[in-house]
Amino acid sequence: MGIHPTLSAPLPWLTAVSRILIRKKYAAKKRGSIFILPRTLSFTKEGKRYIAILFVIGIAAINTGNNLLYLIVAMMLSIIVISGILSESTLRGIEVSRALPRHIFAGRPVMVRQVMSNQKRLFSSFSVSIEELPNNGFTAEPVYTIKLPARGSFTKICSYTFQRRGLHRLEGFKVSTRFPFGFFTKGRRLSLPVDVLVYPYYKPAVQGASSKSAGHELSHARFKGQGTNLYSLRDYTLMDDSRFIHWKSTAKTTRLMTKEFEKEENKIVKIVFHNALTSAADFKDRFEDMVEETAGLADSFIRSGFEVGFKSLTSEIPCKAGKEQLYRILRELALIEPVATNENISPAIKVVKQ
After folding, report:
1. I need a labelling partner for 115 at 20 to 30 A (CA). Which of 6, 57, 166, 209 fits?
2. Mean pLDDT calculated for residue range 114-121
3. Rounded to an integer, what distance in angstroms lies between the CA atom of residue 122 and that of residue 120?
């Protein structure tokens, strides 16, 4: 008779509180704001068994009134409290930093340097793991250390893989621990936002394949002039420079032969990318293939010594040579999107010799 009022009295209060919390939750969703708890807590497999045993012993203690069972329940509850205090002490003072490479390509793993440091002056942290906050655009390797001394740090080179090109937002890290008993996994969110630009994936072309790359052929005529490539051999005259005597042919023909050189061609091209929007069903995949093809063309020509420019419907880059020019073009391709035009233009890639 005495137990019934004790169990039923708090129920109206619990109902009222739950209604308030649910209303606040739906109101926050309507406003678009997200409430983030300072700590997260989840049960491990061992923790679930521990709580189940605790409930069984607790029910047995209530039914039997055995003081020994009450003492066991109290001890088990105190272990939970101690676990919460020690795990909180482990998570406090943990700071994480990352060093991303300068150039990142979609679909290719990159090595990222992560540093985990313990800012506490006296106490060490145990069984600490860190992982990037979830994001659909990339995967990252988690980091774990069994002990992090006070005022100490731990460095690990991790593998990151970004699945698609474009601008990615890394929000930060989740620091978690199962210390001390492994019954619970307590986590702490560390906000460390950074924007990462990911270049499109492309297959590097063979070195020197500038005249014919990815199906775009540049034909040129050969003319005699001042260059580095051999044009032909002829008889030596007194007006020729003796440095250009071809001794191998001289030995075969028993007369002096000199080299004539090919005129150096104008190695300047511009890649024109018509990034026009169409209503084709497979346009999205085809557009990404065109972006990768354009990146491969730029890499091939620049590695072959060309001055390369880039032009699309929304931007233009002047012709220049060198690796930095390649990265300028790749930055444009990382963010390029199809645009709607009034003209009847279909998506296409052209290589124009300047």
Report:
1. 166
2. 93
3. 6
Structure tokens at 121: 């002056």
Q: Look up tokens 């988690």; give the residue.
A: 142
CB 89 within 8 A of CB 186: no
Structure tokens at 258: 């000199």
Query: Domain-by-domain residue ranges, the chain?
Result: 36-198, 221-261, 268-353
Alpha helices in the chain (DSSP H): 3-8, 10-31, 45-64, 67-91, 247-253, 283-303, 323-335
User: Burial level of 265, CB count in 10 A (0-12/13-18/19+)?
Assistant: middle
DSSP character string of 87-123? HHHHHTTEEEEEE--S--BTTS-EEEEEEEEE--SS-
Residues facing residue 94 across a β-bridge: 118
Residues 110, 277: Cα–Cα separation, whole Å: 32
Identify any residues that bridge with 161 across adjacent strands, giving them in sequence order: 139
DSSP string, 188-220: EEEEEEEEEEEBPP-PPPPTTTTSEETTEE---
Question: Residue 329: how many CB atoms within 10 A of its CB?
Answer: 23
Q: Quote the pTM value.
A: 0.70
User: 174: pLDDT confidence band, cut at 50, 70 and 90?
Assistant: very high
27: Cα separation from own chain's centroid: 34
Q: Tell me which H or E stretch contains 141.
A: none
Phi, psi of 235 (to 5 degrees): -70, 145
Q: State mean pLDDT over 272-288.
A: 83
Sign for the CA dihedral angle at 69, 73, 74, 79 comes to positive
Contact predicate 351/271, CB 8 Å: yes
Mean pLDDT for the chain? Answer: 81
CA-based end-to-end distance of the chain:
98
Cα(226)–Cα(216) distance, integer angstroms: 27
